[in-house]
Amino acid sequence: MSWVDSLSQTPMPTILVIAGLFFIFLSISGGISGKVQIPLTRQWQSGIAGGILLVIGLAIYIIPGFNEPGSGPVGVQPVHDPDPGPEPTPLPEPILDEWKVIHGPDFFSANRHWKENDLKYDDYHITRKLVNGAATIFIQDIGTRESGGSWERTNIPVEPVLNFEISADFKWLKKNTKINCIGFAFRDKGAEFYLFRLCDNAKVDFYDYVESADDKWKFYRSTNIYQLYRDDVNNLKVRAHDEKMYFYVNDKLVLEMKDSAPAAGNISIYQDTDKKSALKIAVDNIYLRAPE
Q1: pTM: predicted TM-score of the whole model, two decimal places
Q2: Domains (ranges, CATH) in the chain?
Q3: What is the mean pLDDT of residues 220-238?
Q4: CB under 8 Å to 7, separation ≥6 — which residues?
Q5: Are 183 and 166 in contact (CB under 8 A)?
């Protein structure tokens, strides 16, 4: 039904405000059109409930960051929430034009950089293949752990870089019924790296992974996106320039972060699944450029 569809598209703060006003109206009027009468003791309860709903709804709209995930401590800090608002111009195009193209559209078709392999670990198998000029990466979780889920990085051959722009087309070929994610690990020093990932629940995340830490995966920022193709190709892009880091999905800026201690590192394709199952992705059109 159309009204059901409209309601499902209505932001939660709007629903809270409308509900709050409705309860306040009932508390003042004492009923509806003289046909429904509300006892006096219920009227003031309705007024209190309406006031609470109204305040919460308005707070979500007005107070900055009220409905945003918390940011992490010193190291990586969010500096911009791109939605809503005009999309900024992160780097002047002349700077990007001066960067050297390291990998282009022939990354896979040239068959020089991609190693086909079939690796078997205790908890999962991973198979990398080239099919029709594109790459496929297949994770099969075979572990006996009660909590399943696996993640894997596939290195992109390049010397450690600080400043770069990388983009690629991704497609989910086989997924489980839970959450499945793809993305890039970068400024990767082996036991430490940053992660930008896109998940098929229409969320993008930014993490800082430190293997030696008690809490290895430090979460910093997550946001919803509105242009996700679950059964088709999605383009992901990371642009890093000194302390500034910009993240795009299908050419739309979705996150912007600041690195207070930028350092060069490797770049990898990343994928994970949160359930003991299988995840297969296709990757194509890798494009990487960096300063000379």
Answers
A1: 0.65
A2: 2-62 (no CATH), 76-290 (2.60.120.560)
A3: 86
A4: 15
A5: no
